[in-house]
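[Q] Does anyone have a clean structure-token version of this?
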Amino acid sequence: MQQRALGRTGIMVSERGFGAWAIGGTSYGAVDRAQSLRALARADELGCNFFDTAMVYGDSEVLLGEFLRGRRERMVVASKYSGQPEGIKATLERQLQRLGTEWIDYYQIHWAPSTSEEHLYEQLLRLKAAGKVRAVGVSLKNANDVDRVLAHGYIDGVMLRLSLLDPDPFVLCRARLHEAGVAVVVRSALREGFLSGKFTHDAVFADPADQRGEWSRAQIAATVAQVEQFRFLEQESGGLAWAAIRYVLGFPEVATVAVGIRTVEQAEAAFSAPTAQPLSAVHLARIARIQSQSGLRAGRRSLLRRMLDRLRR
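[A] Here you go.
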């Protein structure tokens, strides 16, 4: 698999990474431990070297730690501080134990710190200076977060949502991110699995460990309606999920996209292709029109978009 630079850190990462939230078993349904380990191993075989996790992802770090035995030196591990009460330093020490490693390659604050939380940036730098982490970043939600975080010039990277259904804040802030030269790690490229194209308006998520079970019928139907607008991409890409990943990786500012994986089959679908070629210019123009007309871009909010926002509150 092709690799890209993780910003200016000197770290090279596979352009598609293993998003390990799902194997934690707390948000996308119960998981089989052996199956998760097989999925991790298959990802490794196919050239994936970037693995993104967090302590709040259930058993994800523990499973990843088991997988890393004998593989650690060639893997890039990303994790996060999610506001645990014991503080960032003590939390990191626990995470190192769970992962069975002496360092984390890319360590992030799981939200953009407020003005009263500015001390967290200094603590990140101390962890980096101590060799506990190699690079530091922040997971962002909106354009305001981007501007606030990039004001701290020593941040190595950001993680943000980017998909066919969520072009912003990335597209809105793309020039700023490019200028800063930070690593951009993308999450939610498949919008909780809906951009796989396999769900219909009457989809049911019955597993109590699946967060999508909390979605209303209207929210599911509205999301599926948005997804259906991009079905035209399937012919060029051989599948909607692969088209969604190609869309994200078509932006050179993106270092890697963390694809949520639970099974060997999902690992093979995400990582088998050696390189994700950009979508055609014609299709990119059509995507941009749909995003604008459907209110998926900032400042162009349609009735459908407003309805989705109300349902998420």
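[Q] Thanks! Anything notable?
[A] The chain has one domain: 3-312.
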